[in-house]
Amino acid sequence: MTEEKFFQTKIALITLLSACGIVAVSMGLRQTFGLFSDFFVEDLQCTITQFGLAIGIQMLMWGMFAPIFGAMADKIGGNKVTIIAFVFFALGIYLLYSGPNTGIFFQINLGLLIGIGLGGTAISVQIGEVGKHFPNKTRGLAIGIVVAMASIGYFFSPMYTKYALTAFGWEKTLQHFLYFIIFGMIAGIFLFPVKKTDKKKSLNSQSIGDALKEAFNHKGFILLTLGFFVCGFNITLVSAHIPGYIQERGFETWTAFAILSLIGLFNVFGTLSFGYLSGKYSKKILLSILYFSRGVVLILFLILPTSTYVAIGFGILYGFLWLATIPPTNGIISQVFGTQYLAMLYGLVFFSHQVGSFFGAYLGGYFYDQYGTYDYAWYLSIALSFFATLVHLPIDERPLPRLASV
Question: Is residue 1 over pLDDT 50?
């Protein structure tokens, strides 16, 4: 029995490369907004709470539009959807530095417009499209590769942003972001959908309404959704507020940039590792291990003495766990429900992720403004990590009966 090729068609290869370019841009830029917080507070007269609220709105819009753009991608193709979403992203960036950009307009630009753009460019549509080009055995690794490229964006974007903020100022830095968005739009042209002639047309074909009803009547889908809420809270608390926490703890200032860059670098290894393991072992067990490990790493970061080594160690370990949840989460959805509405169903689960992201961003700023410390937000993040450890265990990973003939 000959081993199947990883890339079964040239279109699969092109689509994978396109998705990698898109998410490297969108996720990379999204990772840097915490580095602008001091400039926004000083020049745009916003508070840390208002900045946290804007990031929270961004997370909610990202999540709300992920299933909408996902359903559109399942119907008209991810390439068209990606380009449309990048237009919103570019508009938000442009208005953020050119104005109007204070008061409610700050929330509209950083929160609403960029959030809508992320809904169609930041992972969910792209991995949904890629997942349709690969069988269940290799789908996790293919998705892991895409997420790893998001990590490359995570790694380089904070470094470039640190340089640009120092050399050019925050307005010019945001202007430069538009060039990256243009690259993402070009890459988006090649995010090809599966050809209709290749799709399996049989009794497994569903309407969108049937797919939604089936998913929400499945206990595993609900549990997966609850677990992904925690993922959003965990990582957005870190990405939005780690620069402020670094100052609070008395770490050297540069360690905030180092942590964000290390998260991006080591997330490459984490997503590839868990993408590969998703094709070998129970995905729900992998998710429980991931969330438990996050809780342990956060505890160690809080209780260990303030030192450069602790900061670097946190960046490495939390980076390995950062987006490693995506391949097994997406893998459970496609394994249980099939791939016909994969982008939409993953988008729905991802919305819960973004609700968690909203609370991670907002509560981090709220607790700091109310109590002068981020500690309460970290305690909540730890408790939620252990909750997610348990919530994935009852998930039934078996494909639904209607997929038995596939």
Answer: no
* pLDDT reported for residue 223: 95
Tell me, yes or no, whether 5 lies in a domain.
Answer: no
| Mean pLDDT for the chain overall | 88
How much is the average pLDDT of 368-376?
A: 87
Q: Does 4 reside within a domain?
A: no
Residue 253 has pLDDT above 80, yes or no: no
Where residue 328 sits, what CATH number does that domain have?
Answer: 1.20.1250.20
In a domain, 341, yes or no: yes
Taking the model in full, what pTM does it have? 0.80
More confident: 83 or 140: 83
Query: HEC string of the chain?
Result: CCCCCCCCCHHHHHHHHHHHHHHHHHHHHHCCHHHHHHHHHHHCCCCHHHHHHHHHHHHHHHHHHHHHHHHHHHHHCHHHHHHHHHHHHHHHHHHHHHCCCCCHHHHHHHHHHHHHHHHHHCCHHHHHHHHCCCCHHHHHHHHHHHHHHHHHHHHHHHHHHHHHHHHHCHHHHHHHHHHHHHHHHHHHCCCCCCCHHHCCCCCCCCCHHHHHHHHHCCHHHHHHHHHHHHHHHHHHHHHHHHHHHHHHHCCCCHHHHHHHHHHHHHHHHHHHHHHHHHCCCCHHHHHHHHHHHHHHHHHHHHHCCCCHHHHHHHHHHHHHHCCCCHHHHHHHHHHHHCCCCHHHHHHHHHHHHHHHHHHHHHHHHHHHHHHCCCHHHHHHHHHHHHHHHHHCCCCCCCCCHHHCCC
